[in-house]
Amino acid sequence: MNNRAVVLSIGNLNLDIYIKTDGIPRPDESIDAYETYMGGGGSAANFSVAIARLGLGSRFLGSVGNDQFGEMLIREMESEGVDTRFIKRVSHERTGTVIVIVGLDGSKRMIRYTGANLGLTPDDVTKDVIDGVSHVHIALGRTEIIEVAKRIAKSMGLMVSVDGGTPLARKGLDIVKDVVDGVDIWFMNSFEARELGHSENFVRAAENIVSRVRVKELVVTLGARGALLFRDGEVKYSDAFRVSPVDTTGAGDAFAAAYVTATILDLDPIDKLVFANAAASLKVTRRGARSSPKIGEVIDFLESLGYAKLAREVLGRLK
Ligand code: RIB
Prior knowledge:
The chain is α/β, with parallel strands linked by helices. The chain has twelve helices and 14 strands.
């Protein structure tokens, strides 16, 4: 039954342009790059592609410019099996573009031109877009869109996850707590947890957040250190797998997609974290935000590391 589940992701679709280098030039200075590449990006769009690769139905709602990059990005998502029917094209703005500066250790710094992504409005989030979906993932920081999507999805009895990133965290908990009130899963990284929870210690920060917000699960991703889950007054932790990072762009999106998949498959909390860590660990060994693994790759990876039981369980539930 679960392989028929469709996940809708709402948010940005960008063209990502990557430059691998070991420094940042000062004014009037130039430095060499080791490598350059480009491809589809945008947290919500990356999530949609990752969901399709994990074997679930995938639908995306976002907005691009009426330009060649917008068309190219839509075709790329279609080729991954994502339902792109609801993507909006606006003529007053260029397709969103992000320059990603990738360090030799795989770390990333991003310079974002939001552009046509702002063409998405709360009016675009309709019952038609959500119809036939089991889970709605909202990966942007615009509170007016999160609120509408959450309200409609909840009125239809669906699961909702939010990954608002730094733009949402910067709004502060007093505003954000009402926006995410009642969602099933709230994803954030340790930087965002510290920002929202007002503590340099991310565990204490996350505890401050869950004491003030009504969400079923708060998931804090810690990069190479794994991830934490706060649920029902308990904290669960799963370490990341040891890999050699090439490019960490999109690792959080691959993690969130695998975590949502594992939630739909009704895995145990720790298994959800392990499965999501496996997907994110594979992603960081590859270039670009759209290099999340296919389900068979995650299964092989888990089996090779002694998680054969979990691998069998995932495969059994996906049937
Ligand atoms: O989460 C990674 C994404 O953030 C990149 O693909 C980039 O487009 C930015 O939106």
